[in-house]
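ok trying this again, last paste got cut off
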Amino acid sequence: MSTRKTTTEKGKFTEHIAFTFLQQSGYEIEAVNWRTGKLEIDIIAKKSKNLVFIEVKSRAIDRWGDPAVAVNHQKKKLLVRAASMYMEMVDYDGNFRFDIITVVGYEVDKLTIEHYEDAFFPGLDF
């Protein structure tokens, strides 16, 4: 039997790593894998009166560069749309931002975690 993780298992593992990292960094987790229709936000959290929408990206190794580059313009548009729907649903009218957390590696003692706060802002092109 193979010990390799499926894509779903890897995703859940890295989201758990990001979840734990955020909690240890003082974030209050509001939701994990929040969905509406086909839109999804990996983690929604609060910190310092900000609502934070977090996309989690991972790679087994960094040979192909930073996983954050996988958050392309189309993905950003989908995140903005989902965030807008979430804020409308919970009647939120405060400060918010979009972060990216990257996890490189799949062995707990050999992980590299990067947190890009305010990774992008939805401007007029969104």
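PB: full thing came through this time. The helical segments are 7-24, 73-89.
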